[in-house]
């Protein structure tokens, strides 16, 4: 096997899906830096997640998969050859990228054995199932390091310590709205379908329970927030007003973010602010699988293990069991208020 530790190798991680998924992959970048300190760490991801990847100081280079896949196959192969990647780890299955990585003669290509095409294009296969596992997504990602002789089992606390997230300061003018004399809370009500959502009226009820000691910011993508509005003297609507890079910066300067299982919740957790997650107990989308990595995380989840009755509908009964009152009480406890 190629001995990566013997010289300045280039190790790439491919995670070409959503924001939260990329955040949960960041710990293996820190682990690789620990075991192979001379190596260059490259992260291959979609344009949309670039601001996340470039905020982690363990990552030396970002490769934009959105731009790369727009090229011809010959151009893609030549590009990968020019990058001189020694090892490519597929944290998210990608048939097209796996195929061109083989044709580019990348020496070590690591992937799960649970995709047939990986048997054709990858040469280090790891046998584990995400669907049937009781592990957190970040812990599952570490299983892909086994072919590199990294077999340690990590706790979520240890994995959080491997993230070197330092958000960039931006020209985000909305940071001026953050008040040092109040507790600044971001409400991110939507999830682009990645999580079960709290109903609009629950967020409004929560707002009604929070007085002038709190400043509340409503954030999210303009398209998914159509028809959604919230009222309150202490409410500021920032829907669709920030780029992702600006939003990351804004989150890092706030005090708390409340959301269901979605990317901004994971950003808040690794930004070391209070991250309050609203989760269903359904397997594979529950806190066991998607608990955010951070030291100020609080999860609300109805205590009904693996609820199969809640199908993917606009109204999840388990989410309705999480009351605005109990979330408000937690916010008060954080601030030592009544």
Overall description:
The protein is α/β, with parallel strands linked by helices and about 350 residues long. About 30% of the residues lie in helices and about 15% in strands. It is built from 15 helices and 12 strands. It has helices spanning about 20-25, 25-35, 50-55, 65-70, 75-85, 95-105, 115-120, 135-140, 155-160, 200-210, 245-255, 265-270, 285-290, 315-320, 325-335, and strands spanning about 10-15, 40-45, 60-65, 85-90, 110, 125, 185-190, 215-220, 235, 255-260, 275-280, 295-300. Strands 3-2-1-4-5-6 form a 6-stranded parallel sheet, sandwiched between helices. Strands 9-8-7-10-11-12 form a 6-stranded parallel sheet. Helix 13 (about 285-290) links the parallel strand 11 and strand 12 (about 295-300). Helix 10 crosses helix 15. The longest helix has 11 residues, at about 75-85. The N and C termini lie far apart (about 60 Å). The model has no long low-confidence stretch (mean pLDDT about 95).
Characteristic key phrases:
338 residues; alpha/beta; 15 helices
């Amino acid at each position: 096997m190629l001995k990566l530790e013997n010289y300045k190798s280039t190790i790439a991680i491919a995670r070409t899906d959503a924001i939260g998924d990329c955040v949960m992959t960041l710990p293996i970048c820190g682990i690789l830096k620990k075991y192979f300190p001379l190596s260059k760490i490259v992260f291959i991801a979609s344009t949309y997640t670039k601001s996340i990847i470039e905020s982690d100081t363990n990552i030396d280079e970002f490769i934009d998969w959105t731009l790369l896949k727009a090229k011809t196959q010959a151009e893609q192969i030549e590009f990968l050859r020019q990058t001189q990647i020694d090892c490519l780890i597929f944290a998210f299955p990608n048939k097209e990228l796996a195929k061109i990585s083989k044709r580019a003669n990348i020496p070590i290509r690591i992937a799960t054995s649970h995709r047939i095409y990986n048997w054709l294009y990858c040469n280090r296969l790891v046998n584990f199932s995400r669907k049937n596992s009781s592990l957190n997504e970040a812990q599952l990602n570490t299983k892909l390091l086994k072919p590199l002789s990294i077999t340690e089992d990590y706790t979520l606390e240890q994995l959080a310590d491997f993230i070197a997230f330092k958000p960039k300061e931006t020209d985000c003018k909305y940071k001026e709205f953050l008040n040092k004399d109040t507790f600044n809370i971001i409400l991110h009500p939507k999830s682009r379908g990645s999580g079960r959502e709290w109903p609009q009226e629950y967020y409004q009820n929560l707002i009604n329970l929070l007085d002038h000691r709190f400043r509340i910011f409503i954030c999210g993508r303009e398209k998914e927030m159509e028809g959604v509005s919230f009222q309150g003297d202490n409410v500021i609507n920032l829907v669709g007003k920030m780029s992702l890079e600006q939003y990351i910066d804004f989150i890092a300067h706030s005090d708390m973010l409340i959301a269901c299982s979605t990317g901004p919740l994971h950003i808040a957790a690794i930004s070391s602010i209070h991250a309050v997650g609203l989760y269903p107990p359904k397997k594979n989308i529950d806190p066991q699988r998607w608990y955010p990595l951070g030291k100020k995380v609080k999860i609300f989840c109805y205590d009904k293990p693996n609820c199969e009755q809640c199908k993917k509908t606009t109204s999840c009964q388990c989410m309705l069991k999480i009351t605005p009152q109990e979330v408000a009480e937690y916010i008060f406890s954080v601030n030592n208020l009544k």
